[in-house]
Amino acid sequence: MTDITLQGLEKRYGETTAVEDVSVEIDDGELLCLLGPSGSGKSTTLRMLAGLETPTEGAIRLDGEDVTDQPAYDRNTSTVFQDWALFPHKTVLENVAFGLKMRDVSKDERRERAQAMLERVQMGGYDDEDPTTLSGGQKQRVALARSLAVNPDVLLLDEPLSNLDKRLREDMQIELREIHDDLEETFVHVTHDQDEAFTLADRIGIMNEGELIQVGDPDEVYENPKNRFIEAFLGDTNFVDATIVQSPGETVAVETELGAELVLPSSGDHGLESGDELTLSLRPEILSIDRGEPGTDATAPADQRAVTDGSTTNAVTGTVANVIYRGSTVRYSVSIDGTSVFAERTDASSGSLSAGDDVTLEWNSEDVLAFRADGTRVPLYNP
């Protein structure tokens, strides 16, 4: 196992900066996912770690050794690529054994280690197969076996599952996690798929425009996103514009584009004043949706609402605009004072709603996330 340190890593191509000041420490045996949209710099960061790109500035250390200027062949790392990069003129076994051959491992040992790794990725018995005849999932397993056969200190994975269909991709995510847990090696995995990162990662590093914005456990980055970009990128949510109308104290009162005054908890001095603009995030999982009118406390004036352990209840009324059935969930788009907000139910059979129904959306105020005009998070509620 190997720990990794990236310090002030930058990569520029002429006037274009692909990666800017990336610093992170990755522990022995950890699986870190670099997550971000296309062009965010995650694959370039991985290629620098692999030795396939030379940093413009910064340092890379593996187990404390500075490898910044070392070529790929001098680093005990191995990379699984998005397109698998299998040799079409070699058999499956020869593909897996190729890296061992380049390291002058004896023929018998190459065969033994390659067969063992094929068994590990559920490709035993495919030794003599032509890789061009394999399915996408099988090719991915062979590519993974080839990278693992050389016993690398670090396994680097550059969107290796992106060419697979949804069901196979989900199965491979679980298998890859199990392989990591079995081998206890250091993995760095690049993906643009949020579900994939949350399934695989010990920690997630979120990148955008060449910068590493936040690194943390999956639950940490989801529950406490550093800024609005992360909140938007990690999943569907409702962003609602708001203006503070009551100077923060025990609570913060805001006017919103929903045509209602909402109350947010406040447990500290966040430098907010009346007139400041915020963006609120109302995630669909915090919203309850039902026919009928809300409870009286949820719609009482801000200064009359009960506060219990930092919690108040907010509610707004609207009309169901459309209903989208999504298998295990049903999504309801609700029109509220001209603004569209969506909520979801997991049980479609329980009091199903139809377009045109008048409904109430209700939620606990401490579940709302707030962001300043510059996109930074305002941690209003700290229980």
Question: How would you describe this structure to a colleague?
Answer:
The protein has helices at 42-50, 92-102, 107-120, 136-149, 166-183, 194-200, 218-223, 228-233, 296-299, and strands at 4-13, 16-26, 31-35, 57-62, 65-66, 77-80, 154-158, 186-191, 203-208, 211-216, 238-246, 251-256, 261-265, 277-282, 288-291, 313-326, 329-336, 339-345, 358-364, 369-372, 377-378. The longest helix has 18 residues, at 166-183. The strands form 4 sheets. It has a 6-stranded mixed β-sheet, with helices on both faces. It has 383 residues and is an alpha+beta fold. The chain folds into 2 domains: 4-233, P-loop containing nucleotide triphosphate hydrolases (Rossmann fold, 3-Layer(aba) Sandwich), CATH 3.40.50; 238-378, OB fold (Dihydrolipoamide Acetyltransferase, E2P) (Beta Barrel). Strand 17 (329-336) and strand 18 form a beta hairpin. Helix content is 23%, strand content 35%. Mean pLDDT is 89; it is low at 303-308.
List the helices and strands and how they pair.
Layout (H helix, E strand, L loop, with lengths): L3 E10 L2 E11 L4 E5 L6 H9 L6 E6 L2 E2 L10 E4 L11 H11 L4 H14 L15 H14 L4 E5 L7 H18 L2 E6 L2 H7 L2 E6 L2 E6 L1 H6 L4 H6 L4 E9 L4 E6 L4 E5 L11 E6 L5 E4 L4 H4 L13 E14 L2 E8 L2 E7 L12 E7 L4 E4 L4 E2 L5
Parallel strand pairs: 3-8, 3-9, 6-7, 7-8
Antiparallel strand pairs: 1-2, 1-4, 4-5, 9-10, 11-12, 11-14, 12-13, 14-20, 15-19, 16-17, 16-19, 17-18, 20-21
Short summary:
It catalyses: tungstate(in) + ATP + H2O = tungstate(out) + ADP + phosphate + H(+). This protein is of the alpha+beta class and 383 residues long. It contains nine helices and 21 strands.
